[in-house]
Amino acid sequence: MPARFEELDWQPTDRGEISLRRRYDPVAKADIFEVRLGEEFLMSSLFTAAECELARLALAWVDRSEVRVLVGGLGLGYTAQTALGDPRVTEVVVIDAMEPVVDWHRRGLLPDNPGLATDPRCRLVHDNFFRVVSVEPDASYDAILLDIDHTPQHLLHPDHAPFYTETGLRSMARHLNDGGVFALWSDDPPEAAFSEVLASAFARTAAEVVSFANPLTGGESRNTIYLAQGVRHGSSG
User: CA 186 to CA 197: how far, in whole Å?
Assistant: First the structure.
């Protein structure tokens, strides 16, 4: 019988202790990989539909034959792996502030996405996504995909808050090529307040609800993917 629980790695970070755990779930009848920051649950391989849809929905809006993608938040790698599955994608740069997370992929501790660290089209970077996109751009992309905070209101760190303003979104948008798309994962239903902020910075926006089976409850769970394209002229200052 599979082991019920195993801590694969544990490391201190400036945001707290981060751990990668594998447990056998008798309901799902599968090994589940989970990441925790302290006692806060960050992600699980049991629920990956929305992480994959983050890439699929964004890339469906991109009308280019060759596509460069920037991903904020590596996590278990499902968003980056899905982006690499699009034949138009020539490069995926993934930024994560947690060096242990990057290390897990390089060490092959995540069997669902074992080739992510060795794919020549993919580059894993240990850095702060919010810092990178707030500075003058030295690189531009056709899609920027973000999955770091739980929601635009429920943040992993208060330093992230300025990003979710019109000014912060405009600063990030300088890294987008013409026709480029920004997409954001959220654990909550669509929020009217954030949708308004997004629409103040972009000409075309949407909030897509992604539903998926939850074997733990026997019902459905839902996440939201925000999409934005076409930077509006002007600024809120």
Answer: 15
Tokens of 24: 């056998």
10, 42, 8, 48: which is closest to 28 by C-alpha?
A: 48
Q: Are 234 and 194 in contact (CB under 8 A)?
A: no
Angle between helices 166-173 and 192-201 (to 10 degrees): 50
65: domain CATH number is 3.40.50.150
CB 4 within 8 A of CB 23: yes
- Mean pLDDT of each 10-residue bin along the chain, 237 residues long: 75 88 81 87 88 97 98 96 97 95 91 85 96 85 97 94 97 95 97 98 97 80 96 66
- 17 lies in some domain: no
Q: How many structural domains does the chain have?
A: 1
For residues 200 and 237, the answer to whether their CB atoms sit within 8 Å is no
Query: Which regions of 45-121 does DSSP assign to beta strands (E)?
Result: 67-72, 89-96
Cα torsion 186, 187, 192, 193: sign: negative
Q: Are 109 and 31 in contact (CB under 8 A)?
A: no
Domain-embedded: residue 216: yes
Distance CA 202, CA 229 (A): 6
Write out the residue range of the structural domain in which residue 113 sits. 47-231
* 2 Cβ contact partners less than 8 Å away, ≥ 6 residues apart: 24, 31
HSE-up of residue 159 (Cα within 13 Å, Cβ side): 9
**Contact yes or no for 163/135 (Cβ under 8 A):** no
Residue 197 lies in a domain: yes
Give me the residues paired with residue 94 across strands. Answer: 71, 124
